[in-house]
Amino acid sequence: MGFPIPSEKIERRRYINGVFSESSDNGTFEVNSPYSHEKIVDMCEASVEDTKRAVAAAKAAFPSWSNTDPETRGSHLKKFVELIKQSSTELMQLDAMAMGRLVSQYFDAMYTASQFEHYAMMGYEAQALAIALISSAAI
């Protein structure tokens, strides 16, 4: 049985601190089709060291992200939304392959995109609320 996405096209490495990399201990795990039990791909398995590296990268990035203005932050999130939408067919196929879910039941990409669209606007909503509160206090 063939899969809609060839295994060599599936990114199997971990993405940490802006870089795709293999597991530090070369660990992998096999992903099999729940339908046919056929091997789809060997994925890199995150080691304790990889996890610590990912957490450290997230902690290091947090201050900069926290100090990013709402417009820039919203712009980054909107770009992420567009990437999710552009990749929705591929995400659907990957989910069907690895999880056995029917393609007709796949809605996760669009739901995720809608959640990030909401988050992209939250900075503006907080600013508007602050302005309204300040304005009403001045009256």
Describe the structure.
The chain folds into two domains: 1-67, no CATH class; 69-139. The chain is built from four helices and four strands, in the order E-E-E-E-H-H-H-H. It has helices at residues 48-66, 70-86, 88-99, 108-138; strands at residues 14-16, 19-21, 28-32, 39-44. A hairpin with a 6-residue loop joins strand 3 and strand 4 (39-44). Helix 2 runs antiparallel to helix 4 (108-138). The protein is flat and about 70 Å long.
Gross morphology is flat
Helix percentage range: 55-70%
Tell me the span between the first and last alpha carbons: 71 Å
Biggest sheet strand order reads: 1-2
Proportion of residues in extended strands: 5-15%
Quaternary organization: single chain
